[in-house]
Amino acid sequence: MTTTTTTAGPDAPADLTGPGDSTRPTGPDDDIRENPAAHRVLTGDRPTGPLHLGHYFGSLRNRVRLQRLGVEMFLVIPDYQVITDRDVADRLAEHTENLVLDYLATGIDPDRATVFTHSSVPALNQLLLPFLSLVSVAELHRNPTVKDEIAHSSQASVNGLMLTYPVHQAADILFCKADLVPVGKDQLPHLEVARTVARRFDERYPRPDGTPVFPRPRALLSDAPLLLGTDGGKMSKSRGNSIPLAADEDTTARLVKGAKTDTERRITYDPAGRPEVSNLVLLAALCQDRAPETVAEEIGDGGSAALKRTVTEAVNEHLRPIRARRAELATDRGHLRAVLRAGSERANGIADATLAEVREVMGSL
Ligand code: ATP
Ligand code: MG
Question: How far is CA 144 from the centre of its chain?
Fold first, then answer.
């Protein structure tokens, strides 16, 4: 269990991690608050299924917080990355629209954020070619997140896109020169790849005036960098262990009821010793904006049943306005597509400009 003990109010600072070591916290986000226009955020979610509480507390809330501070936001829906661990992208259009719906329902403002799919921005994908030359095959094989995803994949063999997708992700981040990436803990190794690619590119193709082409992006970890699913593993869209944001209240109750706990009656908050119970305690605490220790103490000897009742109520209450807004937005699918079209147009303009810079420093004609 890797969650921290702090709770997140709507104005709580993003937890920054700094250059050189993407796991090292650098303190409060004063610089972002003081100078939001100097920063750019890139994040995204694969269109593989409905977003869940892990996304919400691990990343989405941080995104909305940053947007409210006035930081420019890019949201990529990496449709090409769906086929890293499966043969075909099942129900791609539906999943993509539903992601846009989740974004808008949780507070992403399409007038301020650029929402686009991978496949609609050719120049972004072209950056992958020079970037791939900057990393070794051994480095790709060593990436712990890729190893984990390979272990969970049902594919008979590992395809090339799976092995190289952290470099693709570097292209996602660097095409728009994002310097901030709100992610869950599983993505930290990928951030390291993006930083390495940026550094090596600038070393290999120095500009005459010494200014770098790319920023060195930083990870922004939230208060729930690794929310566990109902089976005790990382909550994931494709592992059948998630509580979707869009689930109805009864489904939420059923899913929470099925969550793994332990046999000890007294509820405590002990992430290292009791990961599953502590994960549920944290979930209630995040929803109620309280300290997990307080939530655990209140439940006391109530056991798993009381804990699960508390979690169900807390989740349903917290998500009620988001779910209502989602239902409203879902009646206009045309609007969702228009958001994507506008985002794609803007992302293409930026990707074309970055690719032109890359071609210039590489000496292409
Ligand atoms: P899939 O099973 O298809 O890989 P996923 O649930 O792992 O889906 P991703 O689209 O891979 O979701 O991840 C999108 C973002 O959400 C990433 O920044 C990731 O770190 C974050 N995230 C995903 N799952 C969790 C989780 N359980 N806790 C915290 N953050 C998470
Ligand atoms: Mg994943």
Answer: 17
Question: What are the residue ranges of helices labelled H in 211-302?
Answer: 249-257, 275-288, 292-299
* Centroid of ligand 1 to alpha carbon of 75 (angstroms): 14
pLDDT digits (tens, 9 = 90+) for 263-301: 999 999 999 999 999 999 999 999 999 999 999 999 999
Cβ burial 5-30 (10 Å sphere, 16+ → b, else e) = eebbeeebbbbbbeeeebeeeeeebe
3-state helix, strand, coil in the chain (%, to 5): 55, 10, 35
Ligand 1 binding pocket, CB closer than 6 Å: 45-46, 48, 54-55, 58-59, 183-184, 186-187, 224-227, 234-239
Closest-CA residue, ligand 1 atom 21, reads 184
Give the residues of the chain that fall short of pLDDT 50.
1-28
> pLDDT value at position 5?
28
What ligand has the least distance to the C-alpha of 238? 1
Predicted pLDDT of residue 260: 97
Alpha-carbon span 101 to 328, nearest angstrom: 10
**CA-closest candidate to residue 354, choices 210, 212, 190:** 212
| Integer Cα distance of 8 and 10 in angstroms | 6
What is the predicted pLDDT for the residue at 223? Answer: 74
Q: Which helix (H) or strand (E) holds 159?
A: none
Nearest CA to ligand 1 atom 6: 236
**Prediction pTM value:** 0.87
According to the model, what pLDDT value does residue 34 have? 92
pLDDT at 181: 93
Closest C-alpha residue for ligand 1 atom 15: 45
Task: Output phi, psi for 247, to 5 deg.
Answer: -60, 150
* Residue of minimum CA distance from atom 13 in ligand 1: 45
